[in-house]
Amino acid sequence: MVNFLKFVVFNLFAVIASLSWSEDTVLEFYRDSTTQLTAQDIIDSDLNNQVEWRHVSRNNANFGFTDDAVWLRIQLSNKDIKPQKQHVRINYPMLDHVDAFLVKHLNSSIIKHTHFSDYLPFTEARQHDKYYLFSYTLLPQTDYTVYVRVETQSSMTLPVVVFSEDEYVQAKTIENYWFGALFGSLIIMGLYNLIIAISLHSLTYYLYVGYLSGFTLLIAALNGLGFQYVWSSYPNFNNLTPLIGAAWSLLFTLPLAYFFLKINRYSPIISILFKGLYALVGLSILSLFVIDYQTGSKLMNAMNIIISPVILITALYFAWHKRPGAAIFALAWLALVISLILLSLSIYNIIPSSAYTRQAFAVGGLLELVIISLALARRINESVHEKNQALLESELHLSKYQDIYHNSPAGIFTAKIDGSIANHNHAFAQIMELNHYESNELNIFQNLSKDPSAIIKLMEHLGAGRTVQGIPVLCTNGKQEERWLSITLSLQGEGVEQSIEGHITDIHDHMSRQQEKEEQHKKRLESLKLLIAGISHEINTPLGNNLTTLSFLNSIHQELTENSQPDQLDALNNLGDSFVILKKNEQKIDQLVKRFAMVSSGYLQASASKIYGKRFLEELTKNFIENTSNIPADLSINSHYQGPKSFISYQEPLTIIITGLIDNSIKHGLANSDQGQIDIELLVQEDHCEINYHDNGIGLKEDIKDQIFQPFFTTSRGKSETSGLGLYAIDNIVSNLFQGSLQIVDNDNGFHLSIQLPPVKLEDI
Fold first, then answer.
1. What CATH code is assigned to 606-763?
2. Do 135 and 84 meet the contact criterion of CB atoms below 8 Å apart?
């Protein structure tokens, strides 16, 4: 394909170089703004020198878009002694109405009238030529004048050429060769790149084919070949093809540059610019359905004038920054822009008009398409090279992976979706103590765990998240021995192609040691519960007697106070204060005994009741402040409740949890603090209840965070001593009664504890 494109370019330049027929005809024009003058009017006025004819330089009368009727005067002469055939041709096929009148020089009689119309089928509108051709047989030694009237809605472009018979045959032959090579190249490139686009599913190739097809349609329309060979019976469609071709090519121009240069990857700002321009193109194309032909043509030309420099500048900018493919794309677009400049300069008579300039757009566009096609082919080669390189690297990685797979100490396996083993490494068989045949008959869901519920849970986790990591399972190996394994599974693929990949490691020794520690810890806790239960029982009796005695003494004190003398009042008041202190201490001891009883009894006595959330927090903090003697004067306790007005839960345990946390903060976190602050947040929702507790004290050291919920471990937030059950009791209430969890939240200021509790019941009030 690359050699073919080189051949095409070489031959096209050779053809263009041979387009050298004579264009030295004297051409004059007159503009009829009324459009009412007839041929006889013009001829008679010309004979009387009443028409001001203007000379057209370079034989290319160009008037742009105009509503005037333009008359041309062309002088023909036969100096030979024999009749001679000559041809007058206007090399622009998009004119609407063209009339030619042949008269003898200085004579008013019209010898021949030829009428062409763009609104007729090709066989009626042309003389077997794609352009407007007027053929005359001139008498010997006779001079003639040809008057040509042109009226059109398209651009009034009138490149006139006069041929002898031999020159006309030569020009037709060269043109046929030129246009055959041009459109043959375009069609071959279009089909070739379409096949590549389909085979590679490449968006860039599809955009290239779309742009090429629009360009081909535009060139076929502007040179009259489409009307001559393709849609010759549809003159109305022919009049629209320049707009259709221009709109079609514009529709693919910006996306082609956008994706070829990968603008979205390298420049977000330019990406926004291109998207804005593309929106403008879309609006312009839609407007063609409601505006006239002249306005539509001007609009399409304006869009080309705007877009072409933008694409060229962008490509040059990317080439300057060495973006892949930008330099060759800039070269391609430069060829098109130069051709457009040459064509425009010739249209406006700035440079001589010739076959070279008239075909500049076709040549430049073809060069652009050839260069872009070469760039795309180069990109394919680079892509193939990259894929081959990636394939080599993947083979190396595969080899390394296979070594790791076979030599790994972890048991690695692949299983079907039903759990049957498809493949495994040596370590898998060694860990399971199975031979090769036994391990291939293994099912991971049936043989890797003795507990069916564990298998169900494992499948649920695998189905929900497509992976499970480090799940401990108790299995039976090939020797019928129980072993603890850690299993990791991941779900791969979709549908019938799904498979399971995973690995196992032996954690039996670790799990055995862990179970031993848990059993020892359980025994210690049971012993502790029995001890606490015994102590609580022994304290309850004397405690009850003390409370009764205090009540009796308080009543005696009230009687004495009522009947006492003034000099006895001070002593009695001091005695009353002592009774108040004793009562508070007795109440606190009573709360501690209840707390110990809850720790030891398993909370069988706890009962749920209705709790008004906001009132509960307010009264709890108020009672704590009133019944606690060692509260710092500057301490502020803030409570916040969010949830329904009331809910059903265990009020006493909740009270113990919150008051225990406040007491812990006062003793250990805020003992030496100024402006102490405690924030308590209770959130009640449908699925859970959450307590967020935060003080601004000295916080916890990192090394004791895992110990503060152990029995008899307490801290002064930095110093440790073994004298408390507060946080241990809270942990037990949360875990055993509520089946909840608590977590220390890391922060830079104070102590922050988050407690998660499932609510017993919500009440809608």
1. 3.30.565.10
2. no
Delimit the domains of the chain by residue range.
21-175, 182-220+229-384, 408-505, 513-596, 606-763
Per residue in 115-131, pLDDT (tens digit) is: 988 888 887 777 778 88
For tokens 């004397």, what's the residue? Answer: 542
pLDDT tens for each residue of 666-695: 877 776 677 788 889 999 887 778 899 888
Three-state DSSP at 674 gives coil
Pairing of strands 751-757, 741-744: antiparallel
Are the CB atoms for 101 and 155 separated by under 8 Å?
Answer: no
* Beta-sheet pairing, 636-642 with 467-476: unpaired
Nearby residues of 524 by Cβ (< 8 Å), 6 or more positions away: none
Rounded Cα distance, 426 and 606, in Å? 56
Q: Are 349 and 60 in contact (CB under 8 A)?
A: yes
Burial of 191 (0-12, 13-18, 19+ CB in 10 A): exposed
Q: Would you state the pLDDT for residue 178?
A: 81
Give the dihedral of Cα atoms 587, 589, 592, 598; nearest 10 deg.
-80
Residue 421 token pair: 């083993």
240-287 pLDDT, tens digit per residue, is: 888 888 888 888 888 888 888 888 888 889 999 999 999 998 898 898
* Spatial separation of the C-alpha atoms in residues 282 and 716, rounded to whole Å: 74
Q: How far apart are the first and last CA of the chain?
A: 82
Cα distances (Å, whole numbers) of residue 231 to 91, 276, 383, 561: 19, 35, 41, 126
Check: CB of residue 86 under 8 Å from CB of residue 158. no
d(CA 29, CA 172): 27
Whether pTM exceeds 0.85: no
Give the residues of the chain that fall short of pLDDT 50: 1-24, 601-604, 717-724, 764-765
Which ranges of 408-507 would DSSP assign to H, the alpha helix?
426-432, 436-440, 444-447, 452-465
> Going by CATH, does the domain composed of 21-175 fall within 3.40.228.10?
no
Q: How far apart are CA 328 and CA 339, in angstroms?
A: 17
CATH architecture of 408-505: 2-Layer Sandwich (3.30)
- Where do we find the tokens 């394919």? 380
In this prediction, residue 101 carries a pLDDT of: 94
Distance CA 735, CA 756 (A): 10
